[in-house]
């Protein structure tokens, strides 16, 4: 175990899966979940956020996001967490230094990449924080389980950095798999892994098409509008949230029963309810791709995440998936199949 003031003499890599929000997204927001209890059904997919920690050979402190080409190099001191592209990196390092290293600031290089851009609707920012926390967990032999990792990632992102958003992304990334997650008062969270028959899971996987709109959105605008509506007890916003919560239960039942037509109906119902909770959730590009997908045989669909761009998901007959994917790509989307993953965040040492 690395003690306070010591620097790991090995590299540690970690990865955390991104997720599709199948139903209930938005009900994991405060103040809704604090007052009414929220429920979300999500599934992790074969796209990841990656983190790598190693000793810095020059005795400096370096933060890098290689996928967007951003780097910061500084003296090894407690870094500021006042925004910028690498605020997540700095915030995780600072939290670890203050809480587990007695304020010591070892010279490290902390690098990340992600298989999807921030604002994609796949929970990539939160998965990145989970991957960073998981990497430090292994590097420092910290006594943290998946609940601890998810709670810590939530605290760093939502409390210490003050970034808008809910709770589902951190728990999906930490646990992995298909989960029905309940969000209760006093920040209590219960993760219920679904034991879906393999044939049903295969059929769901084969029925889904995901499509990136090409527009990464700043979800905090939509989320802040939802929070204002909830705080003001806006009837329309509350009704939309109640419907989304009901759809999480309905989606759980549809998935467990292997009923893909019902899965599609719940997706469509949730899409209409989601649009009740804030403006800007549907954009011209989203509407264009959505209408095209329905014309090309999609049974139903919705956005994954807050909306305003990012990824769409559609459910269709597996025999029609190739045609639907081709049509969406021809129209300017970036559509593909998707594969579920069953493992959550994981990290491993890389001996030097």
Any key phrases for this structure?
8-stranded mixed sheet; alpha+beta
Question: How would you sum up this structure in a few lines?
Answer:
This protein is α+β, with helices and mostly antiparallel strands.
Can you walk through the features of this model?
The structure is a single chain. This protein has 352 residues and is an alpha+beta fold. The chain contains eleven helices and twelve strands. It has helices spanning 32-36, 87-100, 124-139, 146-160, 168-175, 198-207, 219-231, 235-257, 260-274, 284-295, 321-330, and strands spanning 11-23, 38-55, 61-65, 70-74, 108-114, 178-183, 189-193, 208-212, 300-304, 311-315, 334-336, 346-350. The strands form two sheets. Strands 1, 2, 3, 4, 5, 6, 7 and 12 form an eight-stranded mixed beta sheet that branches. The protein has a four-stranded antiparallel beta sheet with strand order 9-10-8-11. Strand 6 (178-183) and strand 7 form a beta hairpin. The longest helix is centred in the last third of the chain and has 23 residues, at 235-257. It is globular, with a radius of gyration of 20 Å. The protein starts with 10 loop residues before the first strand and ends with a strand. The relative contact order is 0.19.
């Amino acid at each position: 175990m690395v003690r306070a003031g010591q620097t790991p003499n090995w590299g540690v890599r970690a990865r955390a899966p991104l997720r599709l929000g199948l139903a209930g997204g938005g009900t994991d927001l405060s103040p809704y979940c604090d007052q009414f209890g929220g429920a979300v059904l999500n599934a992790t997919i074969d796209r990841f956020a990656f983190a790598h920690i190693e000793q810095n050979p020059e005795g400096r402190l370096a933060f890098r996001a290689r996928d967007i080409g951003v780097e910061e190099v500084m003296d090894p001191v407690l870094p500021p967490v006042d925004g910028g592209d690498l605020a997540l990196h700095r915030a995780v390092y600072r939290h670890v230094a203050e809480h587990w290293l007695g304020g010591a600031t070892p010279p490290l290089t902390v690098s990340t990449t992600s298989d999807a851009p921030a604002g994609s609707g796949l929970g990539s920012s939160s998965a990145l924080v989970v991957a960073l926390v998981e990497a430090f967990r292994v590097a420092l032999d910290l006594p943290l389980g998946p609940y601890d990792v998810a709670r810590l990632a939530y605290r760093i992102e939502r409390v210490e950095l003050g970034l808008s958003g809910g709770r589902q992304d951190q728990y999906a990334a930490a646990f992995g798999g298909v989960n029905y997650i309940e969000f209760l008062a006093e920040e209590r969270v219960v993760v219920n892994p679904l034991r879906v028959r393999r044939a049903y899971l295969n059929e769901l996987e084969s029925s889904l098409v995901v499509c990136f709109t090409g527009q990464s959105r700043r979800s905090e605008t939509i989320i802040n509008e939802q929070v204002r509506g909830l705080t003001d007890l806006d009837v329309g916003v509350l009704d939309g949230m109640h419907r989304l919560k009901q759809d999480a239960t309905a989606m759980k039942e549809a998935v467990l029963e292997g009923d893909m037509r019902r899965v599609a109906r719940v997706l469509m119902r949730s899409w209409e309810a989601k649009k009740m909770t804030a403006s800007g959730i549907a954009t011209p590009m989203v509407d264009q791709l959505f209408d095209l997908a329905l014309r090309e045989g999609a049974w139903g669909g919705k956005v994954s995440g807050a909306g305003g761009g990012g990824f769409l998901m559609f459910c269709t007959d597996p025999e029609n998936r190739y045609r639907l994917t081709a049509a969406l790509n021809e129209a300017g989307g970036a559509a593909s199949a998707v594969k579920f993953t069953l493992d959550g965040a994981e990290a491993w040492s890389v001996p030097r």
